[in-house]
Amino acid sequence: MRAPVAASRAHDADTPREVRRTEIEPPVAQDGGPLRQPLYGAYYGLSAAPFDLTPNPRYVFLTGRQREALSNLKYALVSSKGFTLILGEAGTGKTTLVRTALASLTDTPSRYVLLANPTLNRVEFYEFLASAFNLSAEAARSKTRFLAELQNDVETRHRAGGITGLIVDEAQSLPHELLEEIRLLGNIETPTTKLLSVVLSGQPELADRLNDPSLRQLKQRVSLRCELGPLSLSETASYIAGRLRIAGGVPAEIFEPHAVATIFEASTGIPRTINVVCDNSLIGGFAAQVKPVTAAIVADVCADFDLKLRRAAPAGNAPSSDEPRPSTTEVPTARKRRFTFFT
User: Fold this and answer.
1) Would the pTM of this model clear 0.90, i.e. be above it?
2) Which pLDDT tens digit goes with each residue over 1-54?
3) 79, 91, 302, 324: which sits with the fewest CB atoms below 10 Å from its CB?
4) Other CB atoms within 10 Å distance of the CB of residue 126
5) 233-246 and 257-267 helices, crossing angle to 10°
6) Is 199 helix (H, G, I), strand (E, B) or coil?
7) CA angle (208, 212, 213) in 5-degree steps
8) Is residue 186 within 8 Å of residue 148, measured between CB atoms?
9) Which of 67-76, 297-306, 307-316, 331-340 has the lowest mean pLDDT?
10) Closest C-alpha among 216, 248, 250, 247 to residue 341
11) What is the average pLDDT across 284-311?
């Protein structure tokens, strides 16, 4: 595939003025910040970048499994369930799910602290928590003072009807000593209520670590557990179409059905990889002035990112929509598939 920069220069004279000026005069989002309109936005009728890698709750996509996980997460954060475990391979949407749950709990007297980078030592961990919970400078330096102030803080919030929560993302990277510290923080409670809700969100190796006999006490305290997985072919198609619609586009005019099947094959249904392939396919389609994006353009992007396709991008007419759907481990056949939302 030609380099997007070189291609965009070649087409600059033909690029609409609205596209060329977005870097100088970015549109404003509803929250007052700049709305990131992609270079290809005007060409494909998109008002925003639909496949950014940021965990934007606006673009959350809920399959049955994701919906169940979100419900469990919300329940854990509003009912003081102690420890909750969210597992999923890298890129399956755990962080987006956490951000979505937190965004829905803003109008409460509760406080939730999110630790997104847990590769800290013990001192740094308590410094972070002291700052996040607005405790004193002394609490950041003394664990004894920290525990006393945190106990008072969560008890005061509990009496006011609020919940205190700690969410640790990328929890598979937690040092062993911090897993033990977090377990002990979970002991902040009354005789009838857990005062600190703890959510550990991480990749499957987190579950493997909890099977270590030295962490058996932490594993025993997990009261809710859910797991995210890759999307199926039809879920991948719905995921892509949903993001395009939210960004103001018409899916059938942006991706050919078989291009979606190729995206699924290359990504194996991992949402983060789907986003990377879709975004770069739209860049390639814009550079070549191709609309809708074809499977050949997607295959070109996959080659650039070293994503394996077992067969060449096929051509031909789509079969009936009742054709058996492959599992997430199967490779789409050489025939086109029809997706109802593209029709």
Assistant:
1) no
2) 444 433 333 334 444 433 333 333 334 444 445 566 789 999 999 999 999 999
3) 324
4) 23
5) 110
6) strand
7) 155
8) no
9) 331-340
10) 250
11) 93
CA atoms within 13 A on the CB side of 118: 24
Distance from CA of residue 127 to its chain's centroid? Answer: 27
Which residue is listed with tokens 């002291």? 130
Q: Are the CB atoms for 224 and 84 separated by under 8 Å? A: yes
Helix and strand tally (H, E) in the chain? 15, 5
Read off the tokens for 33: 């910040």
Q: CA 235, CA 287: separation in Å to the nearest integer?
A: 28
Question: Which of 12-21, 202-211, 306-315 reaches the highest mean pLDDT?
Answer: 202-211
Query: CA-CA distances (angstroms) from residue 166 to 80, 183, 186, 221, 284?
Result: 11, 12, 10, 15, 42
pLDDT over 90, % of the chain: 71
> Quick one: tokens of 313?
């991008």
